[in-house]
Specification:
Layout lengths: L3 E4 L5 E6 L5 E8 L13 H8 L9 H10 L4 E5 L4 E8 L3 H13 L5 H19 L2 H13 L22 H11 L5 E7 L3 H12 L3
Helix pairs in contact: 1-6, 3-7
Length: 210
């Protein structure tokens, strides 16, 4: 398909492609908020922030958000690698407006509830405990330490370790979100059974005043 790019006045770059043979639309927001932006001593902050986006917003707690997504027949996928963070929804074309509204609220107004952050930190520590017991996982950790200088962010785990994860407070998560989740650092991909002018209007309505 032919891809079309529009840049909103606030810097959001929208890339879209019509694909009418399937009655669904995938919307993927890519934000320059990956693990390379973690402050020293707060490794894992980018990944925690991205995972916490799905735990509620200013108007919906985690349960209400989950029920809203279920009602739309979609799920919210989030994640972060070294370079970027992503938020993605796929919905029927007939429900794309409502699904996009949810994605925009998750991006712009996450609540970061302390209870959910505590659960996510505990899950990361449990993952680390499991990794420490697996030779393959340990090999990856020590290879990175061998390959990179100790001062390099790449020498430390993208998701943080037992020393950094407990220091990832709600204040740190909110600060990271405010610093890096910005319109001029966000690209929006919209592909599917959607008129591109409709996609532009949708992006402008929900993200144009960000």
């Amino acid at each position: 398909p032919e891809f079309q790019t529009r840049i909103l006045g606030n810097g959001v770059r929208r890339v879209g492609a019509p694909l009418h043979r399937h009655p669904v639309v995938t919307t993927l927001a890519v934000v320059e908020a990956g693990a390379t932006r973690d402050p020293v001593g707060e490794e894992g902050l980018a990944q925690l922030t991205t995972r916490a986006l799905a735990e509620g917003t200013a108007t919906m707690d985690a349960l209400a958000l989950a029920l809203r997504l279920e009602g739309l027949g979609t799920t919210l996928d989030t994640g972060a690698d070294w370079d970027s963070a992503i938020v993605q929804v796929t919905a029927l074309a007939s429900r794309v407006d409502d699904a996009f509204a949810v994605l925009a609220e998750v991006l712009r107004a996450p609540a970061f509830p302390e209870q959910e952050l505590g659960r996510l930190r505990a899950e990361r520590l449990a993952d680390l405990a499991q990794l420490r017991a697996e030779p393959r996982g340990l090999a990856d950790v020590f290879f990175s330490r061998l390959l990179y200088e100790p001062a390099s962010r790449f020498a430390r785990m993208a998701g943080g370790d037992e020393g950094s994860v407990p220091r990832l407070t709600r204040e740190a998560v909110s600060r990271f979100h405010a610093a890096y989740y910005r319109p001029d650092a966000t690209a929006l991909m919209m592909v599917g059974d959607l008129d591109m002018e409709h996609a532009v209007r949708l992006a402008a309505t929900r993200l144009g005043d960000w």
